[in-house]
């Protein structure tokens, strides 16, 4: 999925926390980079009215992160059947929310 995509390198930091017994605990922390403007992509999806802003954010982030892992491990047996389906799904999302 690619909306407002140019070759400008962007860097994001994700910090995932969990609340346990009313205390926040960090569970994951990682950097993610690329040339996609995740916020602009999510805004376009949300602006369509198909999803709430929260769910548009989750969709865009989930697809981008999953796509990134598949690109890093293209020969992994786990992804053999799924990779073409993800590509078709991304193309469908792009056509629906990001063209024009």
Question: What form results from the Cα inertia axes?
Answer: globular
- Mean pLDDT, as a whole number? 90
User: What class would the helix/strand composition place it in?
Assistant: alpha+beta
* Rg measurement, Å: 15 Å
Task: Throw out a few tags for this protein.
two-stranded antiparallel sheet, alpha+beta, 100 residues, 3 helices, 47% helix
Structure description:
- The chain has 100 residues and is of the alpha+beta class.
- The protein contains three helices and two strands.
- A hairpin with a 2-residue loop joins strand 1 (10-20) and strand 2.
- Helix 1 crosses helix 2 (53-72).
- The model has no long low-confidence stretch (mean pLDDT 90).
SSE diagram, text form:
Blueprint: E1 10-20, E2 23-34, H1 38-47, H2 53-72, H3 82-98
Helix pairs in contact: 1-2
Can you give me a brief rundown of this structure?
This protein is an alpha+beta fold.
